Structure to design on (488 residues):
């Protein structure tokens, strides 16, 4: 079993305590890597290194030079993408094909934000007061704590690191305890790319032991978090104590809305990809299929026919379409929701059981019909391969059911009407709407949640603003002395 080391101040280090914990391969449920178990002392060292780097070489570097380092880093990831994808697939059980796709795409975040680094500009404001010159500067915040989950470990880190670094901040990154290996392997590439020591630091371990001291550290200016909404709320409360900047990306209960004028093949395909890709373990999972009553029965038959063909198996094999659930608690949680749905009276039309013949943490792709919008299975995030099909009557009904959620991350709309394709997205209370497609993301387009799905935006030009603060500078150019007792 390989033992990995953290990255603090440019050095590869063990935890101060010397302790490690095991990372499990979800396909076998057996340990395959040893990860340092950091604590508050390690966090203090990492934040001190990040703070020193922020005040030192990184701050003095031109934005163009900073951007060039990000782009070099992108090229290094691209060269190592195959190895990193295999590590991610082994560590989190997602399909190798999916992780390869992500790893091949991740460099674009560093190219794009590397390009934006020297386009961060202030403004000259034609101020209303004579004899004064006023302008703004966009400045970095300082040390950013990046806290990432296990489902797309490097992709979701790239969404934070690329804009934060382009804006001139430094980083302390805590990956999920379930998927830290790729982060610790990626650590090699930061120095190679030319990042000064301490600009990026990686500390591994458990949420309570590493995440909390990191969030509450007085020298951490911002927390960029992706994970569950319960943890997100706690993170937000801790960050509030220090009046810190936050971005939170917290998952959802996204509706994939199929109207009776949809291209049926495309819609069936889109609903399957929305919930069974990545074993349903994505924040954007289309876990509620809202289907117009007039086509409901036909649609469900076609949906079942396609979903039945999904091949479970070893995520490293090219023919596998649905892999294991990533963690044991998650596996138990998915099975518990299946039993809750059955208890609530939903009709289980596909799956509904553990698939132990495939491996210890497999759950069959599961489809429930007869789901009422107020059932728990229709309201709570399962984060697994479980779809709830809910019928609706007309457009108003569809919008009402879709918006009747504490979440607001994403939605899909399937229609061939151009009017509806423009009208319905306007009415949905979500951060992303896909029309006649699903699960598309890009480094160029802002991503984030409405309501309890989060705060702030990742990717696109909006993202860089999350990592900047505005300074207003006033210069007297009149050369006169003003009345000291009256506001100027
Ligand atoms: P968490 O939200 O608990 O984990 C996300 C990250 O937060 C991990 O790095 C985790 O560390 C860290 N963390 C946990 N507790 C704290 C804390 N007290 N202070 C600071 N950081 C903390 O996700 P889980 O793995 O527990 O999954 C639970 C549920 O969250 C899932 O069932 C799913 O519904 C949702 N989820 C949503 C994701 C999304 O993409 N929006 C991604 C993952 C999960 P550690 O790993 O050590 O606990």
């Amino acid at each position: 079993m390989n033992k990995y080391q953290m990255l603090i101040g440019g050095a590869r280090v063990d935890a101060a305590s010397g302790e490690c914990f095991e990372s499990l391969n979800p396909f076998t449920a057996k340990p395959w890597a040893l990860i340092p178990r950091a604590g508050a002392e390690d966090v203090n060292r990492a934040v001190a290194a990040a703070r020193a780097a922020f005040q030192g070489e990184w701050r003095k570097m031109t934005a163009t030079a900073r951007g060039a380092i990000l782009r070099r880093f992108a090229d290094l990831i691209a060269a190592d993408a195959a190895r990193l994808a295999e590590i991610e697939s082994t560590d989190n059980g997602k399909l190798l094909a999916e992780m390869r796709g992500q790893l091949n795409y991740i460099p674009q975040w560093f190219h794009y934000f590397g390009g934006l680094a020297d386009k961060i500009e202030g403004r000259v404001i034609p101020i209303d007061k004579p004899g004064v010159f006023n302008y703004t500067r966009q400045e970095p915040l300082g040390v950013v704590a990046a806290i990432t989950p296990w489902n797309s470990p490097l992709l979701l880190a790239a969404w934070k690191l690329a804009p934060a670094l382009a804006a001139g901040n430094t980083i302390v990154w805590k990956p999920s305890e379930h998927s830290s290996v790729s982060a610790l392997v990626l650590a090699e590439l930061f120095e190679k790319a030319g990042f000064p020591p301490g600009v990026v630091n990686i500390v591994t371990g458990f949420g309570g032991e590493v995440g909390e001291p990191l969030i509450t550290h007085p020298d951490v200016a911002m927390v960029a978090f992706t994970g569950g909404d319960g943890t997100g709320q706690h993170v937000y409360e801790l960050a509030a104590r220090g009046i810190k900047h936050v971005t939170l990306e917290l998952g959802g209960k996204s509706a994939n809305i199929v109207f009776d004028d949809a291209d049926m093949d495309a819609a069936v395909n889109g609903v399957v990809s929305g919930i069974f890709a990545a074993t349903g373990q994505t924040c954007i999972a289309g876990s509620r299929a809202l289907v117009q009553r007039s086509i409901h029965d036909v649609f469900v038959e076609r949906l079942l026919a396609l979903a039945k063909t999904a091949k479970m198996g070893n995520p490293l094999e090219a023919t596998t379409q649905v892999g294991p659930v990533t963690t044991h608690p998650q596996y138990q949680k998915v099975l518990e929701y299946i039993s809750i749905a059955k208890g609530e009276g939903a009709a289980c039309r596909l799956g509904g059981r553990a698939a132990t013949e495939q491996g210890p943490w497999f759950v069959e792709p599961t489809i429930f019909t007869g789901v009422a919008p107020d059932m728990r299975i229709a309201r709570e995030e399962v984060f697994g391969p479980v779809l709830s099909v809910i019928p609706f009557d007309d457009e108003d009904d569809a919008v009402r059911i879709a918006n009747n959620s504490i979440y607001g991350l994403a939605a899909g709309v399937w229609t061939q009407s151009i009017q509806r394709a423009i009208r319905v997205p306007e009415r949905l209370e979500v951060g992303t709407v896909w029309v006649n497609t699903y699960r598309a993301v890009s480094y160029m387009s802002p991503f984030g949640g409405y309501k309890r799905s989060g705060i702030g935006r990742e990717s696109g030009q909006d993202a860089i603003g999350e990592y900047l603060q505005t300074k207003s500078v006033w210069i007297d150019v009149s050369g006169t002395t003003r009345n000291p007792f009256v506001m100027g």
